[in-house]
Every structure is written in C-alpha cells, then in structure tokens.
Design goal:
Layout: E1 2-8, E2 11-18, E3 21-28, E4 35-38, E5 45-48, H1 50-68, E6 75-82, H2 88-98, E7 105-109, E8 119-128, E9 137-142, E10 146-151, E11 154-163, H3 171-188, E12 196-204, E13 209-210, E14 213-214, H4 215-227, E15 248-254, E16 259-268, E17 274-278, E18 303-308, E19 311-319, E20 322-323, E21 326-327, H5 333-347, H6 350-355, E22 373-380, H7 386-397, E23 402-406, E24 416-424, E25 427-430
Parallel strand pairs: 1-25, 6-7, 12-15, 22-23
Antiparallel strand pairs: 1-2, 2-3, 3-8, 4-5, 6-8, 9-10, 10-11, 11-16, 12-16, 13-14, 17-18, 18-19, 19-24, 20-21, 22-24
Helix pairs in contact: 1-2, 3-4, 5-7
Length: 431
Amino acid sequence: MSMRRKTERCVAYSVVSLGSSRQLFLTGEPEEQYTCRDDTQGHGETVADYPRQIRNLLENIFAVCKQEGFADNAAMMCQFFMADIAKSELVRSIASEIFPAEPGAVTFVPQPPASGKVIAVEVWAIADCCREKHQVNVTIPLPGQVTVVEFDGIRWFFGGNFRSEPIPVGAFARSLSAFEQLEKQLKKNNFKLDDTVRTWIYQGHLVLPEGNTLRYKELNRARTDFFAETKFLKKYLPADYQGAVYPASTGIGTDCMDVVIGAVAIDSKRKDIIAVPLENPNQTSAFEYAAVYSPQSPKFARAMAVAFPAGTLIFISGTASITNSESRYPEDPIRQTEQTLDNIAALISGTNLQSHGIDTRNIDGGQSGLENLGSTRVYIKRSGDLEVVRRVCERRLKDVPIIYTIADVCRSELLVEIEGLAVITETVNKD
C-alpha cells in the first residue's frame, strides 16, 4: 500500500488506497490573486475578482479529480475557506456548472486564506480502488451537508455546515443548538452520537468576551453539557482500554459571530476494527486542563485512530505549541510552529500508537510520522507570520498538501494551530 502525492496549478493532493477504496486528500487555492475594476460606485477601484478566482480554483480541482478518477464521485467532505462568506452562493452556483455530481458534506468557513486570495479549499473524496469495480457505495441523503459512504463493511458519515437554529442567542446556546443539528442528522442516517470520531467547531470571534467569560469557554461549556455521559466508540475500543474517550476535534475562530460544526462518524459490525483516542505523552490531556483555561475543560482527544486491516486513519486534532498544559514560545511564530509539529510527530509515532494498542508491525520499520500526513491545515493568528510559518512547514512536511488560513487560536499567546489527517501505509512515494 502506498501514498502518492502531487502538486498541479496551486492544487496539492495525496492519493492512497485503503481496502477496496481509493481516497483523495486535496488542498488548493486560485492560481492568481485575480482582480478587476469595480465601476459600481463610479470610482473604478481595483478589487478582488471573486468569480474568476472561484472558477479558476474549481476548474483546477475538477481537472485533478478527473485525472485521478474521482470526477464521477461526490466529495465526501469539502471545506471552503472564504474571505467573504457572503460569496458562498456564488461558489455553489459555479460548482454546479463544473461538477456533475451532487455536493457532499460542504462547510463554508469564514476564515480568509492567508495568501490574500479570496478562497481556499480542502477536499476529501473517495472512489473504487479498481475503476471497473463498484465496491464503494456513496449516497448523499442531504446534498451539501451529509454524505454516507460504505466500503469493506464500514459505513462512514461525513457531515458539514451544521448551524444553530435561528432563535438561540449567545455562544453557549448557539453551540448547543448546532450540536443538536449534528445529532439529528446522525440519527436520520442510522448513526449515533457515540459513533463520532472527529468534529470541527468553527466559533465566531473565539476569544472575545461574552458577559463575564469568553466565547471559547462558553463553547466548552456547551460541548461538555451536550456530550454529558455519552460513551464514545465503546464497541471499537481495545479490550483493556481504561481512559476517557472523546472525539478528535478542532475549535478555532472565524470572522463572524456564529458557530458551524462538521463531523465524521463510523458504524460497522466488523470485529477487527479498533478506534482509540491518542494522547500525547508530552502534553496534559485537554479534558484534564485546569479550570484557569476553561471551567469546563475542552472535551476532545489529541487524535483519534481508526485501525482496520487495510490501514489506519488518524484524525489529528487542532494542535498548538503546548507541552504539559503550558503555552511555549510566546511571540515566536517559528519556534511555536516547530513545537507544534514536534507534538504531532510524537502523537502519531509508531511508539505512541503501540502504547495505545495499535499494531504497527505492518508499518515500514514499525514507525510513522509527519511523512504519513495525507493533508494538513495550518491556522495562523497574524497574517504577517505567514512566510516564516510556511518555511518551517515546507521544510518539515515537504510535499504534504497544506492549506493556510487566518484564524484566532484559543489562547491569546498562541500564534499557530495545526491539524491533519494521517494515513498509515507501508511506503510513502513522491510522484
């Protein structure tokens, strides 16, 4: 089993075979910062050409999907990062002209790409391992929000764009309502909340005050209340597992005042699947943080590993420059990026996987690391730090597909947060 990587026209991607499926992990942005003259006010100012940038990105994505045999399959999950969230309908309209399939789980995130372009994208898509066979079943019960994929006796739920009902006010109530929308769709598609392996929580103005607290702390209170006594993934845990179990997650800021949630869940009757949360030996578990960080601690695992005979997927939570529970290297974006990548490398190492009950004998040399990343997302607090952060990431991650966006991180002193999806394979080949 091997992973193949390639970059074409500002679109970078990895392709890997897992059992009877081939999976595509792609990041991209427009080739240029296309502009046009705005004569609507009579001033003729130069502004971003949204239609041209969006069309250029979507056409390049479709060209890659067609070349790699994914053009006729719906994207399982797609996140668009937008400089202007009001242009979401424009993206939908242009996408409907280019892509033949209905949209899968699509989330529009009000985070500007760090490059200054108006849009960037992260895509996870699937197709049959052999193009003439039909062993992967993709259904879209709710176009634009939910995709259900089944192969090798495993059902996968991919959901996006879960938002609050209109009425609730405040970060706590709106977060709770968005979680309720997620659970509603899980149940409609014969999944349960405790099947969830990964969530993304995009919280508007994450670190702003709300009343006598912070919006991020209200988010953590809502997540704590909603998860309550849920016993996550109990039928997939190693028999001797004793620790707390929560999904992998990212809680990150956006340029709005609302919250939107995405998620991945699994369901299977197979007895040879292991799903186990991974904790970093160099970090305090987030759910054990002291109350100074949040009265209700963040209920997420540092990563979630899902292992089956064809391979292992590792959903890596938002990770920052923290050891034990303390932030490291304040005001130094270079050293924060290095420490963050060190944390991820330790988290997904063969040694750490073995300590959590994952068999690594099929991995080349019994080890894994940053080279196993299928794609990576880098959140940067200050746009001026992009180039120094990018240099560190490109040196250490090499040809791994990366997307860079501007976003608030949960602590004021933290400048960078990184997440990703790792695929354990025997070899990783550069195309």
